[in-house]
TrEMBL record:
SUPFAM superfamilies: Thioredoxin-like
GO process terms (BP): protein folding
The name this protein goes by in its record: Protein disulfide isomerase family A, member 5
UniProt source species: Hucho hucho
Molecular function, one GO term: protein disulfide isomerase activity
Residues covered by the Thioredoxin domain: 30-156, 165-273, 274-402
Lineage: Eukaryota, Metazoa, Chordata, Craniata, Vertebrata
InterPro entries: PDI, PDI_a_PDIR, Thioredoxin-like_sf, Thioredoxin_CS, Thioredoxin_domain
Family membership: Belongs to the protein disulfide isomerase family.
Record GO cellular component, one term: endoplasmic reticulum
CDD domains xrefs: PDI_a_PDIR (cd02997)
Amino acid sequence: SKSGGTDLLHYKLPLSLSFSRALQSMVAFLKDPTGAPLWEENPEAKDVVHVDTEKDFRKLLKREERPILMMFYAPWCGVCKRMQPVFQQAATETKGTYVLAGMNVHPAQFDGLKQEYNVKGYPTFCYFEKGKFLHHYENYGGTAKDIADWMKNPLPPQPKAPEVQWSETDSPVFHLTDDSFDGFLEEHPSALVMFYAPWCGHCKKMKPEYDEAAEYLNKDKNSPGVLAAVDTTIHKAVGERFKISGFPTVKYFEKGEEKFTLPHLRSKDKIIEFLQNPQAPPPPEQSWEDKPSSISHLGMEDFREALKKKKHALVMFYAPWCPHCKNAVPHFTTAADIFKEDRKIAYAAVDCTKGPNQELCKQESVEGYPTFNYYNYGKFAEKYNGERGEAGFIGFMRSLRGRDQGKRKEEL
């Protein structure tokens, strides 16, 4: 509610909490009034053992005879939020036989604990028997039944087979090094070169198309050109020379000289079509971020702080090259313009192809483009799977506002 132009936020004390937890809850609210409530305040999580301090954690390991599965998490972590309902259901189903516990280890005071148990990301699940850590649980997409079944037979994660480097496969693409780069281009007057990084998801998606295009071109006696690739995480001199800052970057070389950078050359057919008639790409369109609009363009550095201030935020995770994203942009922008005067509402966007944002998109479980997530005061609430036109985006937000008005009437 408002009083004299000032927002008044009401705190509701969960009556089921002990004194120490109630105090902790109030302190958390005072530190961050618009933040999500603590996990331990959720009555459905009553069978999860919530651990607050390292001392309590050590005590639990020492005294508990039953096997323990500990979930180390961070309150802002999207994957954690999605797994918490599953984890708490598994805790209820296995109550009395096993202990499922949760601990927020994001604060710096737990850095030593994180190092001890190799917590490099959130969530991290550690399995203990009689106080001893045995191994991790890594089925992040599992159901409550999967967790319960695993606790009956807690096998360690299967070692992942080392990924074979692209250059070591039977690839029809010519794989270049710092030493072979210039000589290769002297011998091949028409060449496309893909600069890539092995960890890059977009590169992995492009590799099969690039391989198939190379195979087709290599069979042609009158081939219009060749395809080559450089892993710039290893061959850094070439990457620095051509100022490679993103992956994949595709460049066309003619008689050893760089001619064009081709940001949208991704499919087999487009690659072959280009080499058959090499033309300069059209000038780049003005990026969505550079166009004036009511969209809040967010990144890893400001995502959580910005959303915590908004009661209703619909976020579009996208890639600039994605056709479905391009189709949705004008409709999403129009919806944002309609609600631009409402300070409690935000339409936001995150470019997942930008380096720092890739980890953010991973944390928010973005697996395809575009992905739309709805957040309530910074807390993930649901995925938006509705219509991707103006009517859908506007109607979704209006339904949320209608729900707010209904709640206010009930309170009156």
